[in-house]
């Protein structure tokens, strides 16, 4: 198979359904049956839903399990630079020949029937996992939970719900309880669920569903607690107290995500090596990631250059808090967003920590918010805003005007992916 085989298949799969998102499980069940149900042959599954922190929490759980000597698979989305990032087998990211093979098998089994891109590629991931012996399989929900293509595991080993906030209202509902009900759709009868920090309205929905299903909850603030003390992370539950290094991932919100990961590892009866590794070994690109090499870093000169893919109001708050913990430097944002997001809501918290925002359109993205529109929203949020034709142009201009700046590229995982590809 040629190196382009998977790209050809993925392009073809984009045309199998008129909608990018069409939440139902019917098409997934049909294809899984045609593939002889790979979802029934997986290692014990840890299923993770939530609005913010899913990826970071998964990365810490994966690092912890690997620190305990376990063989771990992981399914995440979206990818940043290459689709292969979505499917991590026990020996690393899926290879091009293996990816092309499972995509081709799913395409043949689907027989041109309507199915969304995410649905058919999720089936391909499950097929790859079923053929790769492992101790655990981590599945990150794509959107929502109840009708997400990953929600096909009858009895996972554990479910996890990270913080829920308002996002994707056009698919999940306009209120926090409605969105929480969709996320809580991953709960299964009798299966424990670790619950990260939640607003009361979301927690109530999760507790009500758990009670109906007899699913034991391990909820933040009730069954476990986590905090930072003297540059250490302190975690406490009924088993006792853990005194650990702060998470490798940067920002106060990562302390909460770390607590969720530790609660999951405790529920799985992992030991001290797992807890330590979860803090020290986790990697998750485009989440307050410091860029240190590449053309963009050269363009930045003496300025710090950071990349973050958060894109909703809660992510804006988390990014602002993370920036506030770093040594003082003038903060300048380079921001590109999709037109489906709460742009002003994302930018408002950042107005408290940033001096300027330079808006860019996301190259090659049909749903990009035009740079002028993003700049207008930034001004409404209280930021001094301009536009640039590209990220490189924005970074170059900021570095010339403020050589000791901290430049943060933010607003979208799609923009982050483009930056990582162009800066490689």
What would your notes on this structure say?
The chain is an alpha/beta fold. It has 2 domains: 5-280, Mur-like, catalytic domain (UDP-N-acetylmuramoyl-L-alanine:D-glutamate ligase, 3-Layer(aba) Sandwich); 289-422, Mur ligase, C-terminal domain (Protein-Tyrosine Phosphatase, Chain A, Alpha-Beta Complex). The protein has 16 helices and 17 strands. The strands form 3 sheets. An 8-stranded mixed beta sheet has the order 4-3-2-5-1-6-7-8, sandwiched between helices. The model has no long low-confidence stretch (mean pLDDT 95).
- Global outline: globular
- The count of β-strands is 17
Count helical runs: 16
* Uncertain regions spanning at least 5 consecutive residues: none
Please give the structural blueprint.
Blueprint: H1 5-13, H2 26-34, E1 45-49, H3 54-67, E2 72-75, E3 87-89, E4 92-93, H4 96-110, H5 117-130, E5 136-140, E6 158-161, H6 169-172, H7 176-183, E7 193-195, H8 200-213, E8 217-219, E9 224-229, E10 232-237, E11 240-245, H9 252-267, H10 272-280, E12 289-290, H11 295-300, E13 304-307, H12 313-324, E14 331-335, H13 343-347, E15 356-359, H14 371-380, E16 384-387, H15 391-401, E17 406-410, H16 413-422
Parallel strand pairs: 1-5, 1-6, 2-5, 6-7, 7-8, 13-17, 14-15, 14-17, 15-16
Antiparallel strand pairs: 2-3, 3-4, 9-10, 10-11, 12-13
InterPro entries: Folylpolyglutamate_synth, Folylpolyglutamate_synth_CS, Mur-like_cat_sf, Mur_ligase_C, Mur_ligase_C_dom_sf, Mur_ligase_cen
GO biological process, one term: tetrahydrofolate biosynthetic process
Keywords: ATP-binding, Folate biosynthesis, Ligase, Magnesium, Metal-binding, Nucleotide-binding
């Amino acid at each position: 198979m040629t190196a382009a085989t998977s790209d050809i298949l993925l392009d073809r799969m984009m045309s199998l359904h008129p909608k990018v998102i069409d939440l139902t499980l019917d098409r997934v069940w049909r294809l899984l049956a045609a593939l002889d149900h790979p979802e029934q042959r997986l290692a014990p599954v840890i299923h993770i839903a939530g609005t913010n922190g899913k990826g970071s929490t998964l990365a810490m759980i994966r690092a912890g399990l690997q620190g305990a000597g376990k063989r771990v698979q992981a399914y995440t989305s979206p990818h940043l630079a290459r689709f292969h990032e979505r499917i991590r087998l026990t020996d690393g990211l899926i290879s091009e020949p293996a990816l092309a093979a499972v995509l081709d098998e799913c395409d043949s089994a689907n027989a041109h029937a309507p199915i969304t891109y995410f649905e058919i590629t999720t089936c391909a991931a499950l097929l790859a996992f079923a053929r790769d012996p492992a101790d655990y399989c981590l599945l990150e929900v794509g959107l929502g939970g109840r009708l997400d293509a990953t929600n096909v595991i009858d009895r996972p080993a554990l479910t996890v719900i990270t913080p829920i906030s308002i996002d994707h209202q056009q698919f999940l509902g306009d209120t926090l309880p409605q969105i929480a009900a969709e996320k809580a759709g991953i709960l299964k009868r009798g299966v424990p669920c670790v619950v990260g920090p939640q607003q009361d309205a979301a927690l109530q929905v999760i507790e009500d569903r758990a009670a109906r299903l007899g699913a034991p909850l391990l909820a933040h603030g009730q069954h476990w607690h986590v905090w930072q003390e003297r540059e250490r992370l302190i975690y406490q539950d009924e088993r006792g107290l853990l005194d650990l290094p702060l998470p490798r991932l940067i920002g106060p919100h990562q302390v909460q995500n770390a607590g969720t990961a530790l609660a999951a590892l405790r529920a799985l009866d992992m030991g001290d090596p797992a807890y330590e590794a979860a803090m020290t070994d986790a990697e998750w690109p485009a989440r307050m990631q410091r860029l240190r090499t590449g053309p963009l870093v050269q363009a930045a000169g003496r300025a710090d250059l950071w990349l973050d893919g958060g894109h909703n109001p809660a992510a804006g708050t988390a990014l602002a808090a993370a920036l506030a913990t770093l040594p003082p430097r003038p903060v300048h944002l380079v921001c590109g967003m999709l037109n489906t997001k709460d742009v002003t809501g994302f930018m408002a918290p950042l107005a408290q920590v940033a001096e300027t925002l330079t808006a860019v359109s996301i190259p090659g993205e049909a749903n990009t918010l035009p740079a002028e529109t993003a700049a207008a929203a930034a001004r409404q949020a209280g930021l001094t805003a301009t536009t640039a034709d590209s990220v490189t142009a924005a970074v170059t201009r900021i570095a010339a005007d403020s050589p000791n700046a901290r430049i943060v590229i933010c607003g979208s995982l799609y923009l982050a992916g483009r930056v990582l590809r162009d800066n490689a």
